From TrEMBL:
PANTHER family: HTH-TYPE TRANSCRIPTIONAL REGULATOR (PTHR30126), LYSR FAMILY TRANSCRIPTIONAL REGULATOR (PTHR30126:SF94). The keyword Endoplasmic reticulum does not apply. This is HTH lysR-type domain-containing protein. One of its GO terms (molecular function) is transcription cis-regulatory region binding. Belongs to the LysR transcriptional regulatory family. It comes from Kiloniella spongiae. Keywords: DNA-binding, Transcription, Transcription regulation. It holds the Pfam family LysR_substrate.
């Protein structure tokens, strides 16, 4: 059996697209299509149905994919055995996150434990970070409120509250907390749609039956901070992201549960990679304290 053809099939079945699979394997789409077509011809089967510009896996394709998932998991396990004998002296880890506040300390510890591992960091909003993981542009992501997905292996990292914040000249600057019912009387500055911070906040508003009348949407965390500091409105942020900016004052929202749960996640078919497994093992010792 031709391993390249099986690998090509597995990539297409996992990605749901010839284009994405070609990117993952770093081959041209015609090369990939040819490998899958050759596999179908050799065994006289149809693994995918072409529907317009998309594809749909057949029943025999689903059965074969279940086998290749186990096959490539075993290959990763074999790699782990070989690399563990070297004590993870080398390797690469690509990490993406929606903010640096949780991931940087994790990578600092990881770097001390495994100095031979090269790593890179990238940032975006939560939607962009998760999409990048599915497109295999990153190996591990650190982000809040990951929903259950059969493609993902995720572990909770830390619970964290959201707070609202105002500039030091705001009437609320002398207060410690507010009611969520006070917010509609003010302009609220929010991140773009796709931000988990915004989604958590809007869910809390909806559950409380509160509707905002004045929203200013800004596409970056830093710009939101500067807008609030300039007196343009009220911002919303995770507590760890608030920092020590003396121009700003943070307040809790006392009458709703306003919090997120931070996760570390990878693709399920990559969880046994030696480097990824080492990264997950590192966070387990701190999980119990952070989730209590």
């Amino acid at each position: 059996m031709n391993h390249a053809q099986i690998r090509a099939f597995h990539a297409v079945a996992s990605e749901g697209s010839f284009t994405k699979a070609a990117d993952v394997l770093n081959v041209t789409q015609p090369t990939l299509s040819g490998q899958v077509a050759a596999l179908e011809e050799i065994y006289g089967v149809k693994l995918f149905e072409r529907r317009g510009r998309g594809i749909e896996i057949t029943e025999i394709g689903r059965r074969l994919h279940a086998v290749t998932l186990r096959q490539f998991a075993v290959e990763l396990e074999a790699e782990q055995v070989l690399l563990s004998a070297r004590g993870l002296m080398s390797g690469q880890l690509r990490v993406a996150a929606d903010a640096p506040y949780h991931v940087v300390p994790l990578l600092a510890t990881f770097s001390r434990l495994y100095p031979g591992i090269n790593f890179s960091m990238s940032f975006g909003n939560s939607q962009q970070v998760l999409q990048g993981l599915f497109e295999r542009k990153s190996d591990v992501v650190v982000m809040p409120n990951i929903h259950e997905d059969r493609r993902l292996h995720a572990a909770p990292l830390k619970r964290e509250p959201l707070i609202v914040f105002v500039d030091r000249n705001h009437p609320w600057a002398a207060r410690r907390s507010i009611s969520i019912t006070e917010l509609p009387h003010h302009r609220i500055i929010l991140r773009e749609k796709g931000s988990v911070t915004r989604k958590i906040f809007e869910t809390a508003l909806e559950s409380a039956g509160v509707k905002l009348t004045d929203i200013l949407e800004i596409g970056s965390r830093e710009a939101v901070r500067e807008a609030v500091a300039s007196g343009l409105g009220i911002g919303v942020v995770f507590e760890s992201e608030f920092g020590n900016d003396t121009r700003l004052h943070g307040l809790t929202v006392r009458d709703v549960q306003l919090e997120g749960l931070e996760y570390v996640a990878c693709l399920k078919d990559q969880k046994n990679s030696p480097v990824i497994r080492a990264f997950f093992d590192q966070i387990q010792s701190s999980t119990a304290t952070n989730l209590s």
